[in-house]
Amino acid sequence: MKFDHKIAVDIDLLKKYDRPGPRYTSYPTAPYFHDSIGTEDYAKHLQRDNQLKSDEDLSLYFHLPFCDTLCYFCGCNMMVTRDRSKIDMYIDYLKKEIILLKKHLNPGRKVIQLHWGGGTPTHLDPGQIRRLGNVIHDYFDFTENAEVSVEIDPRELTKDHLIALRDMGFNRCSMGVQDFNEKVQKAVNRIQPEPLTRKTIEWARALNFESLNLDLMYGLPHQNVNTFEETLDKIIRLNPDRLAVFNYAHLPKMFKHQRLIKEEWLPGPDVKLELLKLSIEKLTSNGYVYIGMDHFAKPGDELTRAMEEGTLYRNFQGYSTHAGLNLIAIGITSISMLSRLYVQNLKKLPDYYQVLNDGKLPVSKGIELNEDDILRREVITQLMCNFYLDKNKINRKYAIDFDDYFDDVLHQLAAFQEDDLIKLSKDELRVTPSGRLLIRNIAMCFDYYLNRKETEKPQFSRTV
Hints:
alpha/beta; Arc Repressor Mutant, subunit A; pyruvate-formate lyase- activating enzyme; 18 helices
């Protein structure tokens, strides 16, 4: 399926549908995980999937929570430390978790995707990078074409860090920029001059990293259309393969350090929408394809090809080119995804260490999917990734009548059809170019948990 590259943004429509909602890196979403799911459930589902997917490749995620400094906008699980011994101890326990997991995984299953996230993975020194990399390769075999990606931070990076990563098989990297404006950088405690970012990119390209992603953020303190356009122009000249442009969610009740960002510094809702409009229109006018949500890629990129071929997928690391793999996540707070189970690891290091010392997988909570969850996950994933739904295909696969099963949803979708955000017919649901900007809102109509009556709703970021 081919998509128009250039997208025009209607701010009035964005305003109409702007509301809090999930990002759908999973369905059901993480706020509905519960602590009645534990180690035994995880082991049972790992063994179940081993039987069903005995030769299927795996996706691995490692959460490395350590950072050198605190970025005030951060919403990740992280901790500031300069004590190298703490990092060495954490690597010891990652190995313990791997050993426990391997008891439940068929040895023939190879890794086709590996991602290190954080925190700041490159807060590990080059020796620690090699140490963890060797541990992983000691216990897992990789496919020849594996996608091996890592998040890097130019501010404390040396070329030796990147050499160590390449030696360990990493072939893709992603780095945060957020904004090149000095006033914005000072307000969020992330000083990262453009020449430093450029030098890091030059190193990565010289070392033959196959793909480079840059992260930007709109809605940060002191941003305005003129200064953010300057940042976008500089980014376009840097010519990354992929871009992510995230909406800053100011949630000081949830993340105490965000209180260091004064409310009066933040751009108002109208300015934020102008920043979003600017980002989408400028990037799509300069050769980038809007993948969905916050993501852009060049026309020949693997993500773009997957979107056009209808094989794009979405998990806790964002968009992926490999659909339906078991995602095994290792380290504190990380979330694993199996066919019918999500589990999240313990969040605090002492708890994580104690459970591993007891010889148990460090599960904190999760959710087991029922038949309705499986169906709705597929519908939401198809919409989020491919902006298209074949109703007859769903009918055949799940033995339902789509229009009967989702009768209440079709009523909710009527407003989207009236605003030309979707095309709904007897056989299909197709999202229009304008509707792609509001795909979270469209997907929310199919979310059973979000639409049921509850006294208290989870707190989500806004959809635009």
